[in-house]
Amino acid sequence: MLTNRQLQILQVIIDDFILSAQPVGSRQISKKTEITFSPATIRNEMADLEELGFLEKTHTSSGRVPSEKGYRFYVDHLLSPQGINSRDVQQIQSIFNDRLVEVEQVIRKSANILSDLTSYTSILLGPDVQRHRVKRFSIVPLSTDTAVAIIVTNNGHVENRIFSLPPNVTASELEKMVNILNERLIGVPLEEIHKKLEAEVLAIFQQHVQSADEFIHSLVTATMHNSESKIFYGGKTNMFNQPEFHDLNKVRMILDLMETKSQVHSLFQPNESGIHIRIGSENKQLGMGDCSVITTTYSIGEDQQGAIAIIGPTRMDYRRVVALLEIMRMDLTQAFTKKS
Amino acid sequence: MLTNRQLQILQVIIDDFILSAQPVGSRQISKKTEITFSPATIRNEMADLEELGFLEKTHTSSGRVPSEKGYRFYVDHLLSPQGINSRDVQQIQSIFNDRLVEVEQVIRKSANILSDLTSYTSILLGPDVQRHRVKRFSIVPLSTDTAVAIIVTNNGHVENRIFSLPPNVTASELEKMVNILNERLIGVPLEEIHKKLEAEVLAIFQQHVQSADEFIHSLVTATMHNSESKIFYGGKTNMFNQPEFHDLNKVRMILDLMETKSQVHSLFQPNESGIHIRIGSENKQLGMGDCSVITTTYSIGEDQQGAIAIIGPTRMDYRRVVALLEIMRMDLTQAFTKKS
DNA sequence: ATTAGCACTCCTCTTAGTTGAGTGCTAACA
DNA sequence: TGTTAGCACTCAACTAAGAGGAGTGCTAAT
Fold first, then answer.
1. CB-side neighbour CA atoms (13 Å) of B203
2. Class of domain A130-223
3. Mutating which of B115, B158, B219 best tests the A interface, going by the most A Cβ atoms within 10 A?
4. Residue of A148, A321, A193, A233 lying closest to B150 (CA atoms)
5. Its family (chains A, B) (predicted)?
6. For A201, which DSSP code?
7. What CATH class has A86-128+229-339?
8. Taking the domain A4-78, which CATH number applies?
9. B256 to A237: CB separation less than 8 angstroms, yes or no
């Protein structure tokens, strides 16, 4: 167990390092007003903290730098909630000033504001389209053998996909099919459409139209690989400001990661609420060893969730980011549930 | 006017520099098999070429490096067309192997292959949606005061926008209006919809429904700010490989530029066909002073165009890129006009 | 007109020395 | 016994000087 003095010193060191990005020495610490003991004492304590694994040295005669374990302890035990500057709060509120109707717009703006306020990179996940429910299904023929299927969801999201039409489908048949589809699919979540098509709709189609098999098959392939939730970025190049990312290779790795949808999705905790922090090597993605990721979720309507991630160096201003995410999460949730 | 020997030397220097990124000296040139004269002679010629502005030195006793004027001369007069490796051609053809129905998919894949083959960054512009023509217009109400307007175009593209519904619009009124809209708008290019709405449709609406004004107004604002042509990127971080971009700030500028739609659009020549090359400071965009941009266009259907840009260092392999773009442009044009 | 030879330039790399921030340890002190 | 002053030691960062080498420009010979 750490003594109070050790806790205090650890806190001061991490707070200082987060600001300066420089190894912090005993003399520097002793100058802080809240520190009443001498550099020598501090050196002894630091040696102990290092032995316990909370601090590291970059070389034998350098100041101390927090280790991952140090950061972990810091965020778990030393992170007193921070009040946020009212100017910042105002800026967040400004997202909702101009009555943006579309969810996308709000999220896009949120991403930018978050990256501005943190000076890190933000990634926001929009609502999980797979869980939207069908509001209307329509089919618009384009040529003799192709048509576009359009699904409007309860949230006003529109999915569309071109698919190939079996030969010799008449207009009246098509109309009939669209009617059946609407009867059967309204209220069904997108992720279940293809099951529903095969389980129920196929049988009905077979009674009414020719080439039902092919038709359903076409529709199933068209609706199967439906889009995942959309990804919005803010401040993609903000990490260039951080001294720890002055290395081109690191930056490249992270930028490449952000171009890959599956990798981006892997940054988020599956469905858990609250704020999650992953520090350094706790991130398993290639090239994220020097990053910390703070994630949280927000609600959209009744049963849908979006997610927020902030990516920064391990030397991230955890306190500030956590506070900002807390506000953002609440504001977004409020904005999106009030409405629908 | 340059002598033949000067032309030959200029060509060799640029070809060599494009490959090596190192200033090239007289001895190095004299070793090439096609060069029959001595280093001293070459030095004299180089001094002349420098005086004429085609070459530069990085310092008094360094080898020569092409100047922008040198590159310009090179691409204008020394760029013999290059046959492309059959393996590369094959890879380009592979885009069209698997019958991708959707234009977007083809373009996305093209962007990736282009950046792979060139090892530069590629940007592709999809068709100019504004010039698509309305195939079907429909409106799906979401709540009492909002609805989503959906426009399917002749190419199977789907535009949709949420707009606010005037109070007290009945379902039958809505149906009536959609019918009128379809009668009047089918075949109209998206860019002209709002004009048409105000000029023709408004008058008709006024005869049939209440609150026609508001309704049209809502629709106009919804269709006014329609999406520009979609942008597809390939190899965004490829520039990290180029030694001239080992400077974080340069890279950052370019990456930031690529995040800004208007900036990206400014990279493209307005509508001119053929292949265009802008070298170094011929690019007016901030941070593009060390880049060259090669652009061209391809056709989609009868009257629509997409565009391709390759961004690399001024020390770009112009010959190869031009040859690749030529092929790509033709293949895309062919693929997209055959179909529709 | 071409080229060999040579002095000169200037980048790059290495080595050595200096400085300064910071540590660990010992001994003195309250 | 916990705290602190003092001091020797370490090591990164900076500076200066020198060696090596690639390349040039000029002159004179071919």
1. 5
2. alpha beta
3. B158
4. A148
5. Belongs to the HrcA family.
6. I
7. alpha beta
8. 1.10.10.10
9. yes
